Amino acid sequence: MRRLLVYQAIWGMEALPAFDMEADMPGVLARIFDAGFDGVGVSLMRADRAEAVSKGVHEHGKSFEAVGFVRDAGDVARWIDRAQALGAHHLNLQIMTRPDRVSEAVGLLETFEAEAAKATIPVFYETHRGRLTNDALFTCRILDAMPGLKLTADLSHYPLTHEMPLPVPEADAARMTKVMRHAWAFHGRVPGSHQIQVSIKAPQHQGWVGQMRAWWREGFESWIGRSGPDAELTFMPELGPPHYALTGPDGQEFSDRWEEALMLKDMARELWAEVGEAKS
Length: 280
Fold this sequence. Notes:
CATH topology: TIM Barrel
Strand order of the largest sheet: 1-2-3-4-5-6-7-8
């Protein structure tokens, strides 16, 4: 049976009161799992943290997403080896190289896919500002040339990159649908047209909360239609610390990231249940 696994981003735990990842990673992981998360996401860039997280995750019988930052095929091979050695559920790559032409991007990705084909775990490429997948137009042209490419869809970056208004224009909505049809994992936050991360509790942001809910539901439905009967889809709330999180003049965050991560966890499970009921 297909399953939704909801992870919490370790990066999203940084600078949170009452969480000390440097001195008490086991305690942080215990609180994450006690709160009902199925696993976590952790960057491989800090070897000590990745190793500690991997150890703790496996002790709890959970799973994790490994995150790597890559510029060439050698980086891809190295992070695949590391993710597999640590027992990751899958590897999510952010591509730091940004060619000017689609043909150059496709050529680079073909070398990445050659390494990914050797992996024993799934390898996905994240949609993200400032990366090869910086904007939806360029990304969709890549997908036209590489229809088998598998993405981690962090949809929050594209409303900001394109300054999308609400309601979302038809052309932008079509591009988002194309991205979701290639999504094999999701990262979750709510953006605005001019901010990458807004409070999901604030009344002024409910229009974007509703839009992201609709996109995530559409993405879940798309994944169900093309995945195997025993496949696992991951959704990871990824509420980053400042400067992702908005702050006041005193430097304090306007919202409670931990509370809102729990809300996103519950939202994802509600959407998954809705999709399941619609399919039944």
